Amino acid sequence: MTRTVPPASEPEAQTATAPKDVAPAVALHTGTSDVRALLTSNLRQSGIYVAFVVIVALFAILTDGTSLSPGNVTNIVLQYSYILILAIGMVIVIIAGHIDLSVGSVVALTGAVSAVLVIRQGMPWWAGALAAIAVGLAIGAWQGFWVAYVGIPAFIVTLAGMLLFRGLTLQVLDNISLSPFPSEYGRIASGFLNGLLGGNGYDAFTLLIGAVAVAGYAFSNFRTRIARIKYQQPVESFPLFVAKIVAVGAVVMAFAWQLAHARGLPIVLIVLAVLIIAYGVITKRTVFGRQVYAIGGNLAAATLSGVKVRAVNFWIFVNMGFLAAVAGIVFSSRSNGAQPSAGNMFELDAIAACFIGGAAVTGGVGTVVGAMVGGLIMAVMSNGMQLMGIDQSIQSVVKGLVLLLAVAFDVYNKRRAGTSR
Prior knowledge:
It is found in: Cell membrane. Part of the binding-protein-dependent transport system for D-xylose. Probably responsible for the translocation of the substrate across the membrane. This is Xylose transport system permease protein XylH. The chain is mainly alpha-helical and 421 residues long. The chain folds into two domains: 79-191 and 267-421, ABC transporter involved in vitamin B12 uptake, BtuC, CATH 1.10.3470; 195-262. It has 15 helices and two strands. It is globular. The termini are far apart.
């Protein structure tokens, strides 16, 4: 007598076939989530780039193309290079959860020291530059000691420094301006490299440097993409990746083309490029850089992980003092002298560049490249409004609103991310 086995019930049948039917759905869901996470993580930075392009195009239209003329593009580089240098150091300070209000006064004091040695004492131009850097390092060590080892908040220490170093500037200069610097010193911020490779109506060397920069950017991004794929991290599609490289390359070469048709490659741009590359590597690929992000992201966790918080904070401010000194040299070279009021409000421009460029108010977030884009947004806006003859008071209102909206966008993103969890 044979026993008939009843057919499996519907739920049991679904369970039996689940591994075959559900697996593709899970894989598809995971892929969609990865893409969504990738787009979300890049939204803020991509938005900054889009905003920069829109602002450049807007002022090009409003000024009938004057803002994109070769001469004006060169002037933007020369006029705002010292703010970008300050923003490099400031973004590291902000990532670590601090702030530095003294950098404008440090710019003034280091420029004053250089002017006294070179103009008043007749020393070589390089001696003045080295003395300015030494003063900047000493100031950074002074402020880093109070913040890292005494435990006074950076806001208070640097607010005191803003007053202290401005007073020392007045003492060093005897309340008067000193000028002019020798021509060698002036070339730091106003010199150009041109004619090295010739060119018919343009500087071929500038175009070559632009092409090298594009090639380096493409190679670096390709290596990063390969590494992310190797560790099974989400990446954008290859056509989108290529489109991004082509878009950035087109912008860089257009920028180089404009410089090549003006006065060639500014020396200060080379200094700025070296600093951007160096600090990009430091923040992304060194132990020190990872520790800075760890401190800003979660101080308690960083401490428990063995990060020497005091030492890292100390060197963060030493580095800020160094970059403020470099900015002081560039600004005094650009001004061809030292003034007691030099560097006024520079700290606010540098801070605004960092926040507009994606740095978080609470620390732990930010990039050197983002700070540079934020600084360029401020530079293009200021330059464009000046070309349009807009009153200085209105310019301040616009800058303030842009900064407020940038921080509001950061807060909105964090709230949305918290809600999604």
